[in-house]
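notes to self, project folder thing:

trying the whole complex as one job this time. last attempt i did each chain seperately and stitching them together was a nightmare. two parts in total, labels are on each line so i dont mix them up again. if this works i'll redo the older ones the same way
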Amino acid sequence: MTGLMLFSLSMSLLLFSVLPSTAQASDAPAFSEFLGHWEVDFSVSEHPNDKLRYLYEVTLSDHQRRMASGQNRIGETSFQAIDDLRGLVNLGRLGEQITRTSVLNVRMQGNTLYVDRDDNFSLRCEVGGLAEEAENLGYSRCRMSDRALVFWLGLPGGFGIEHRLILSERGDRLSIATTVAADGVSQAFSVSRVYQPFEPVSEGIQCQYTLGKGKVCTLNGGSND
Amino acid sequence: MIRGWILLFWLAGCTVTPSPAPGPRPDEPTTLNRASIMEGNLAGLNLSLTPFSHLGGSVSPVRAELLAAEQRYLPYLLKTTLTESGFWGAVRVTPGVDVTAEINCQGQLLAASAAELQLQLICRDALGELWLDDRFDTRVARDAYSQAAFSGPDPYRPIMIRIANRLADALALLTDQDRRRLGDAALLRYAQTLSPEGFDGYLAVNAEGLMQVQGLPASSDPMVARVQRIRDSEYQFIDAMDEQYRLIYQQMNVPYRLWRQYQYEFEDYNTSLGDRSVGAQRRAVASYEVMLATYKRYQDYKRNEDELSEMAQSLVRALSPTLGQVEGQVVQLTGNLEQQYELWRSYLLRLYQAESSPRASE
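result (full assembly):
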């Protein structure tokens, strides 16, 4: 467990240092305001590849400028700068992999809020329960921070992922800002996707179990047994 | 002086990373005892299992959900092993204690993880005689979760085999007369649940708290025929319930095994991480492939957990209604498995009482 504790600590410092320290602001939305079905609005969502290209160019030119002017950080070499850029590209590639979700279903079951994602596992948050949970692999945490519902996951190998869900003032848009950060990489990679509500179509199938015939289902009042 | 510091660091290192205590070794392979053709021809006693309870205590909400699924999966795994042994009549999993069965078993989950399973099992027959009250532990070998073993038996099967063999040993001690007496006792006990006063006196409790058959009603007694008819309806419903547990078992089989497999691997992974230096961990992050593989592993683990959790949630939600037909009347049952079972039992009781009332016999 020593390794887990070390990376948990370092990742907590890296990611949560940018979070406000207050647990929950008084005007924070209730969990119930996040509920419903959401689909991605591509027109206002960032694309990870574009974001990565931009960050890469900015970081590269920054390094070049500092090296040329002799203002490089203490002990920094060209090789370290290249390593750092490579690390950023790796975070971006991972960010692209984990932000492909196009449909969300946010629901409550008992005291737990579930964010079901169409292409990925569900994010969970306990209302009034444990905010932190050590798992077999890694460490997860969720909490309200200002107006954001923040899920954080620390994984072995020294990297962490944060999903920050923010509801618009009118409640008609849900933004998910995903940040991937890692030990040894000077900056985190973030990408933001925006979702809009939609009403799923009802399947209209009703089933019942009969002792004589087993399961019998009907569609829109018709029988198909 | 330098030697002193080296010695100090060495000692500090010893205290930080103690050598792990050796865990219990995996179980030796166990063979399931199977009934011979002659034994199989004997009138089989029916055995019913209820969903296992668990020890309680503090568990995370996610683990609590999964426990709800395991509590139903494991008795069904035991049921399949008992059925395969061939010593028993109908082996069923029922939502509550099955008053029609000659033997009832109730289990309690003491510990369940990928690497080990501990459970307490209590089995009693219709006369109240204790057949088994024991704790069973198993340690699962790593290769039980390997790809090669995936199509094979469940990694928890050895513990089920040991329980099945213990029950078969207990059954072997019964004479034919004992078996018949148990069959009679089960019918009388069931009859008493329908009509305590009608069947009063046939069963008595002795000084040890065990029931004894005092006599039997005449085989031509119309009350007995009615009880048997109602019991047949009850069998029909219990079989339908058992079918629901079979579906749960089949649906859980793959995700539950994968979930345990990942759990096993993560325990190893975490241990190996603890042994690695921080520098080694930092070097690992430079590789996109390593990060992606770690994330995908975690993703697979969580997806299986989601699937199991969804199943567990569906168990406590209302099922689709069940329609049953008894004595020409159609009955609709709603609610979850346990609620439907209670409704059905109360319906059968009302039916029996209605038939037994003076107006019914006119």
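what i see at first glance: Confidence is low (pLDDT under 50) at residues 1-25 of chain A.
need to look closer tmrw
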